[in-house]
Amino acid sequence: METEALANGDAVPTVHPPNPPARLNDHLAESLRLEHQLMRVPFEHLKKSMRTSNRTVEKEMNAVMSGVAEAAQKDMSKEEAVQHLNSLVSRLQGLKRKLDESNKSEQLQVQRCRARLDHLTVLRAENQQEWNNIRVNRILVDYMLRLSYYDTAMKLAENSAIQDLVDVNVFMDAKKVVECLQNRDCAPALAWCAENKSKLKKVKALEEMAKKNNGKVICPRTSLVCEFKDLSKAYIS
CA-to-CA distance for 84 and 67, rounded, in angstroms? Predict the structure, then answer.
């Protein structure tokens, strides 16, 4: 409380009006704090795609440069040199096709990141009800996907126009792996393990599975029994 001097020299307190209640703003901020996971999936996929592209470029360019150096050192005939260079050009064209596919995937993830950022930034007091309705639909889609109601989840996402706000593609990829395992085919699951080996190493997933089978992992189709240490070395280490 401050004081204000009057003309006669007396001082009277100056009373400021109270600040407006911040409950609504606090509620909105709390809602946004709960949404930190919304950005995680597309951002992680974007980083993964970019890392894969960088590794592919590095590997292919090193191979091409080694091939050029080898051609320069060898005493080749004109036909051999042309054939060797054509093989290098074909390799570079294959690299371009891979990068084009990777670029499409990265653009899709960027689009999803942008859509989710836009969704988070439009939350205001006046549109909170509409925003909450979208949030409920997102939660329902995620819940149905986890219960394997894929068609219903995709229909709800489409009707609600929230395809970029849900992770249907992640669950569909997992569905393919599960279906292959149910058909006694381990190849897609092992490929997934190789692709995600760094994260599997952190959570020690195969170790937990091996503990339940006395240190062994069984491939259903071939009935092949693998020692955990061999499988870990091949697909995770």
Answer: 8
- Answer yes or no: are the C-beta atoms of 11 and 3 closer than 8 Å: yes
**Listed residue (108, 123, 127, 115) closest to 49, CA to CA:** 108
Q: Please give the model's pTM, rounded to 2 decimal places.
A: 0.67
Sign of the dihedral defined by the CA atoms of residues 175, 178, 183, 188, in that order: positive
Average pLDDT of each block of 10 consecutive residues along the chain (237 residues)?
Answer: 51 46 61 79 90 92 89 82 89 93 92 91 85 93 94 95 93 90 85 79 60 48 43 47
Q: Cα(83)–Cα(75) distance, rounded to whole angstroms?
A: 14
CA distances in angstroms from 193 to 187, 190, 197, 233, listed in the order given:
10, 5, 5, 12
Question: How many degrees, rounded to 5, is the angle at CA 155 between CA 143 and CA 151?
Answer: 70
